[in-house]
Amino acid sequence: MSEEIDLNQSFKAYDVRGVVGESINAEAVEAIGAAFVDVLSLAGKDVLVGGDMRPTSTTFAQAFARGATYRGANVVMLGLISTDELYFASGKHNAAGVVFTASHNPAQYNGIKMSKAGARPVSSDTGLFDIRDLAQQYLDEGLPVSGDGEQGRISERDVLADYAAYLRELVDLSTIRPLKLVVDAGNGMGGLTTPAVLGDTVLPGLPLDIVPLYFELDGTFPNHPANPLEPENLKDLQAAVLAHGADLGLAFDGDADRCFVIDERGLPLSPSAITALVAVREIARVQAEGEEHPVIIHNLITSKAVPEFVEKSGGVAVMTRVGHSFIKAEMAAQGAVFGGEHSAHYYFRDFYNADTGILAAMHVLAALGGQDLPLSELGREFEPYVATGEINSEVEDKAGAVARVVEHFAGQPVDVTTLDGTTFTAKDGSWWINLRPSNTEPFLRFNGEGATAQIIEPIRDTVLAIVREAHITN
């Protein structure tokens, strides 16, 4: 029943995500479609609508289209798409749009990522909560009579071929040395986009021998969760890279906007290392075109190696808070050429300031295939420090847990800042840690980095013990 859906439960800081039937359903989505059009003044304009392979995505896309056309927008149905396909279509066609996905969340979830025309983000700062509030009103009171306005039309468009061709224009892989790669799509949208972009299903083949893992589109995720940030979900890929003697492995999340990279030894390259590698390449490219001091965006949880490599290459590093809408806004404000996050979101000015995992992967393939070193050696220089990775703690009183850690470091040679969560940095620069409440899940997230494992590991264990109020042992 509509009165049981409280949209406050599913609207997060920069997207919509909820449990199907509990905090999001087709009736709510129809109201959201109407509110999306009204809040963003889209009557008479095109609105792009697509979805991932989750069981409810098609139903939700149709419901959204009903609400949007009722309020006068012309809906262009894109069918099965990855999130970065939406951003490409929104940028290329200068139209607002949505994709139905819950990214890496389990199968019982679905949600919406929204974009204004030109792939500009819709976040809590740029209308997302206004859409929520109006949609809740429509859900509770019914959609208003359209008045004199005409209802919009529905049409269809397939953007996969254009998306693949555009990515190949940005990174030319036609002349690299032959590479074997294993790709784990996790039954997500990477199973559709990888063959189109890197294979030969849409465009001529490249010098790439692709070993597919879990390319079947299945929103119930029968093999493993489509969340490569969790080490457990990389095990099949790591084993396959070794079994096939591959040069590297790629793992995509459910909506295929994030990509993780495994080297030939089966070991992951950190997203910070990928950020640094791509940043150096993009700085060199635009400097050759006459751009003297290109700006690179990184969030505060990426390795401090990222700004070091950026500055050494002649770029300008700008730090921002975590979250795709915040990064995209900063990309636009700064005219940045590239941006990266610790969570393997990678943003490109040439991709409408939006994030695309496969384009970052193409940079890695170009760098690897343009020389003879294995990826482990090529990537080593970009990982000079030891990172803890992201560690989640489910704690009831997040603020209290952070306060205990602040108290622990009081009087020690440690700087404390609060740009996004709380960051503790040793005054001698030998380590830093960050504690940040998740915007989408009930966790307090820990990230840290040190000059050596001997420095950062005891700090990690102590802080996690304080956060969890329990002794942590390795």
TrEMBL record:
Coiled-coil spans in chain: none
Ranges of residues in domain Alpha-D-phosphohexomutase alpha/beta/alpha: 9-126, 162-266, 279-382
Alphabetical keyword list: Isomerase, Magnesium, Metal-binding, Phosphoprotein
CDD domains: PMM_PGM (cd03089)
Pfam families: PGM_PMM_I, PGM_PMM_II, PGM_PMM_III, PGM_PMM_IV
Requisite cofactors: Mg(2+)
All residue ranges annotated as the Alpha-D-phosphohexomutase C-terminal domain in the record: 390-464
Domain of life from the UniProt record: Bacteria
Keyword hit for Transmembrane: no
Keyword Metal-binding: yes
Signal peptide residue numbers: none
NCBIfam families, alphabetized: PRK09542.1
Family: Belongs to the phosphohexose mutase family.
Name of this chain's protein: Phosphomannomutase/phosphoglucomutase
Gene, per the UniProt record: manB
